[in-house]
């Protein structure tokens, strides 16, 4: 018999979508997998050199549970540059990917029964971690407002038990970039109602429209004592497998996270820490520019294929590297409505008929959404999107 806690979560739905793609491929079907939440790229040269140097030097010891001081200082410098404020090493923890940063936050901030506002569609791990920590996710539907939460909707969802709000911009899965006015509104509301802000900016380096990425602490500096910034190198340096993330916030939260991490994973992998430190000290920004170029090209090419969609709106794809399709018009036919058809069924049809693997919006609390990653090589993207458009245009 497993613990009751295991009933609160199952394996991440994006992982399940990947598994379905793999199983179709194993049966001999040619599948283009657009489910992946990472960018196909080589390593940054500075990361490679930093890791190799550390291995040559025989680095093998534990570090501080929340990372080497030099790395935390370098990260504090990076965050200071991004926010236009002074950040210090004791306000920063290095974590095993952004996932651990978020998990730490849930574990050190939430009491049983505390509610966390999570705008929907949401990245599937946010509510799962809140539940594991004993909290209750409360969703605010953003679909009628271009996937941006309305301040009045957030306010209506706040109760006496509300403890925090998750702000994820650029957003996974929708690609939406929150404007400064929305962030200021959320910030003011958080102050008024005494909420923590969990600010996930993992996709902040990838903005494809005129709107800039705004750290909420820069828009409204008064929120800094109640804001936890979550970020990682998984997306920005295409380093997902190296598991390097970080958390920045008030010192007392970072101290609690240090104690927690000392009992869970201890320090993040030391070779990866050295590699990221070498990159932060010696990187010239070229690798990041190339990665941004790669995504800009992929997005342009993808949008040009998707512009042939006749019954599904072409996505805005403002930031990150996902196209998020709203297939509600396809599912509106009485026959499909009666059968309870959802994006899950669309995903199955796309896998069978177009040989494309996508993630259904049900994973993100949106049964009429579909997420396609364009972090894949361009030839794959075109090979996946072209038949996908044909199948969706011919949808019965
Ligand atoms: N936050 C968001 C919004 C994400 O989409 C992801 C990964 O897909 C993460 C956090 C986790 O990142 P990491 O791989 O660094 O744990």
So what's the overall shape? globular
Give every kind of bound small molecule, once each.
pyridoxal-5'-phosphate
Q: What is the H level of CATH, i.e. the homologous superfamily of the largest domain?
A: Type I PLP-dependent aspartate aminotransferase-like (Major domain)
- The structural domain count equals 2
Distance between the termini: 45 Å
Which stretches are poorly predicted, pLDDT < 50 over at least 5 residues? none
Largest beta sheet: what is the strand line-up? 2-8-7-6-5-3-4
Give the class-level CATH name of the largest domain. Alpha Beta
Summarize the main sheet: 7 strands, mixed
Percent of residues in helical segments?
40-55%
Oligomer: single chain
Instruction: State mean pLDDT (0 to 100 scale).
Output: 95
Second-tier CATH architecture of the largest domain: 3-Layer(aba) Sandwich
Tell me the radius of gyration.
Answer: 21 Å
The tally of beta strands, per DSSP, is 12
Using the coordinates shown, work out and report the CATH topology of the largest domain. Answer: Aspartate Aminotransferase, domain 2
Succession of helices and strands: HEHHEHEHEHEHEHEHEHHHEHHEEEH
Overview features:
12 strands, single chain, binds pyridoxal-5'-phosphate, 15 helices, 396 residues, 3-stranded antiparallel beta sheet, Aspartate Aminotransferase, domain 2, 7-stranded mixed beta sheet, Aspartate Aminotransferase, domain 1, alpha/beta
